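re: ur question from yesterday

yeah so i grabbed the chain u mentioned. its 213 aa long if i counted rite. heres the sequnce exactly as i have it in my notes:
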Amino acid sequence: MEMPLFPLNTVLFPGWPMPLHIFEPRYLEMVRYCTENKSPFGILLIREGKAEGDVYVEPYDVGCMVSITQLEQLEDGRLLIMAVGQERFRVQSVNRNKPYLVGQVEQLPYLPEKTAPLQEAANKLHPLVLSYLTQLTTLADNIEFDPTQVPTEPEALSHMAASLLQVSLETKQSLLEAKKISNALNFLTQQYRREIDILKQFPQQEMGNFSVN
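ran it thru and got these C-alpha cells back, copy pasting raw so excuse formatting
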C-alpha cells in the first residue's frame, strides 16, 4: 500500500498516542490529504537529516502506521493533532516527488509463537513494569499511575514497556523492529531490572509530571 511518511526524532509503538504540532506547509498538506482520504500515515525515526526544514531526510525502514483521532486547527493555520499508533510497517520504496515523503509499504506482523511460552515471558516483565512505575511514584509527587493500565497481553505489554523505558532512540528502534514479541519481552525484562536498581539509588525528589496515558 502507498502511504505518506512523517520522519521524526522519535519512535512510536502500536497502541501508543502521540500529540503532534503541525506547522510546516508540507506536513499541513500531508495531514489534509490524510483527513480528506481517510488515509493513515507512517511515523519513522530519522536516520539522517533533521525533522524540520531539511530538504533531504533519510528515515529508517521500519515505522509505525498511525491514524488521526483528534484535530484542531488554530487561527494561523497550524494544526494540533493526536495520532495513535496502529501497526508496524516496512518501507519498500520511497517517492520524493511530493513536498512530503510517500512510501510504498508493507505490514510487518510479528513471527508466530507458541502462546504459553510467550505469555510466560510477558508474566516476567509485567511485575517489573509495575515495580518501575511504583518506584517512580516514590521519587515524584505528581505521577499518575493506575496499575490496571499496564496490560498483561504480551504484544500490548511489550509496546507499552518499550514506550515508557528511557533508552536511546536506536535501542527503541531495535525493539520496534523485533521479529518476535518474545525477543522484545526478554530484552525489556533485562532493561527494567537494571532501571529499577538505578531508581532505588535515587533519593525522593521532584521529577515533574508523569503519566502512563
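noticed a couple things. The helical segments are 25-37, 115-139, 154-164, 169-176, 181-199. also The chain has two domains: 2-107, 115-207.
anyway ttyl
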